[in-house]
Design goal:
Largest sheet: 2 strands, antiparallel
Number of helices: 24
Order of helices and strands: HHHHHHHHHHHHHHHHHHHHHHHEEH
Number of strands: 2
Low-confidence stretches: none
Shape: elongated
Radius of gyration: 29 Å
Strand content: under 5%
């Protein structure tokens, strides 16, 4: 028969753990709020032992315990108190009745990353995997409870618990940021936890409808000017992906592409799960088109599907590339209808990843530039106004069959007039994508050199990167 687990047993285990004596339980095993993960019977026994104790009784026992006195850390004592209250009042049959108790314990954990002494810091480092485990539990659990509450009460976009979780994560982030000499090899585990919290917090901000707050997270991390060698590759890629996604949604496409490209160039099928590769590809290909960088879909397909294996993830990747293949092909040759038809056919997808409006608004000039370039090459290095006029008519033929949002011209696409061609040329030249002049009779005169500058190079000279993010590339 298993021995009962009491407060005395818990404090004895705690003493062994914090003093790192012989065989010992981890912080996760001792204090996990995932109460069924390690030893549910131990938790049940502890609950039975303390169920009649008041909060004052528990607090008094904690205050008088020799191990706790030795630790001498009010934040840790508060954590112990709230953990034991959670165990005492836990309803094993109802998550909804227990979730707020668990959130309180999680909040107390975040304070443990503000140690006052070297001994406290040792405990803080032991608590890192514990906080990771709690974070992995509390974020999805809080989201689930909030969604269920919305269904019950007929509400939309109301995430009170998940919003509270975001404040806890921010508190933990700021506590870790204040670590003396954080940018040191001895604090690698804290640095990687900092990044895990940062990306989790940004994901929560997106879920609760406050993505703009991600900017504060990036600023809080960038100001530390950390040594990127202390950050694991997976943490770095995840962080930069969130930055790339955020900047894309803020229409800062050059900075977005810079981070997304850094992510994609850092990963392989051997060091990154296909699911994560898929997420990066969803953004880097369309953002690349907006900034004049065309992905080689065939090369990507060969690189990522080289072993020919077929599973659910590779099929999803193949399906994604099948969307992007016609998009890229039509973009390269300046086929306006082909590009917008692909967007139109997958409208729900573009809305889901938050790029529908940018795809409608930001591709027109690059498409027309590519059309002019294609016609110029086909005509042996020359282009006339009439050729471009005819090319535009062919390029846009069929646009009237798409929705109103997709229209780039108000009237009949078969009747492309001179004024429309004038505006197209003016836009391409103004953006620096074509070097030419046009006289009154619409004769085109091209520059002797670099007639069609590389679009990405042009945009790179126009839009600078954030110097505070330079540490990510050093």
């Amino acid at each position: 028969m298993q021995q009962s687990y009491t407060l005395d047993t818990l404090f004895s285990d705690l003493d062994v753990t914090i003093n790192q004596k012989g065989h010992r339980r981890t912080f996760e095993e001792l204090f996990s709020i995932n109460f069924v993960k390690y030893d549910a019977s131990r938790i049940a026994s502890l609950q039975l032992a303390i169920h009649q104790l008041s909060e004052k009784d528990i607090s008094s026992i904690i205050d008088n315990n020799p191990t706790v006195k030795k630790i001498s850390w009010p934040a840790f004592e508060n954590f112990l108190l709230n953990y034991l209250i959670c165990v005492r009042d836990l309803d094993p049959w109802s998550v909804i009745r227990s979730i707020d108790l668990m959130i309180t314990v999680f909040e107390c954990q975040s304070i443990l990353f503000n140690p006052k002494t070297a001994f406290h810091d040792q405990i803080s480092k032991q608590a890192i995997p514990y906080f990771e485990e709690s974070m992995a539990l509390m974020i999805p659990l809080s989201k689930f409870i909030d969604i269920e509450s919305m269904h019950l009460h007929n509400r939309n976009y109301d995430y009170p618990r998940l919003t509270h979780i975001s404040t806890i994560l921010l508190k933990a982030l700021n506590n870790i940021r204040s670590t003396p000499d954080l940018n040191d090899r001895m604090n690698v585990d804290k640095i990687n936890l900092l990044f895990h919290i940062s990306t989790s917090l940004c994901n929560v901000y997106y879920k609760i409808g406050s993505p703009i707050l991600c900017s504060n997270v990036f600023s809080n991390v960038n100001i530390l000017n950390l040594n990127r060698r202390y950050v694991s590759l997976s943490s770095l890629v995840t962080f930069r992906f969130i930055m790339g996604k955020y900047y894309a949604h803020q229409s800062n496409f050059m900075v977005s592409f810079h981070h997304l490209r850094a992510c994609f160039e850092s990963i392989t099928v051997d060091n990154c799960p296909m699911t994560n590769i898929l997420i990066i590809l969803k953004y880097i290909v369309p953002v690349g088109l907006i900034v004049g960088k065309v992905a080689d879909i065939n090369r990507i397909r060969a690189r990522l599907l080289k072993n020919g294996a077929q599973n659910d993830e590779t099929r999803k990747l193949d399906a994604l590339l099948n969307i992007y293949q016609p998009l890229v092909s039509n973009y390269k040759v300046g086929n306006c209808y082909g590009v917008y038809k692909t967007i139109f056919d997958n409208e729900a997808y573009w809305k889901h990843i938050g790029l529908w409006i940018p795809m409608l608004q930001r591709l027109r000039i690059p498409i027309f530039r590519n059309l002019a370039h294609q016609l110029w090459k086909m005509n042996g290095g020359n282009l006339t106004f009439g050729m471009l006029k005819t090319g535009l008519r062919v390029s846009m033929q069929g646009m009237e069959t798409l929705g109103t949002a997709y229209q780039v011209k108000e009237d009949n696409y078969l009747e492309v007039d001179d004024l429309f061609v004038d505006n197209v040329l003016a836009s391409i030249v103004f953006n620096g994508f074509l070097k030419m002049k046009m006289n009154a009779d619409r004769t085109l005169y091209f520059s002797k050199n670099d007639i069609f500058p590389d679009m990405h190079t042009v945009l790179s000279g126009r839009f600078s990167l954030n110097p505070r993010e330079a540490w990510l590339d050093n």
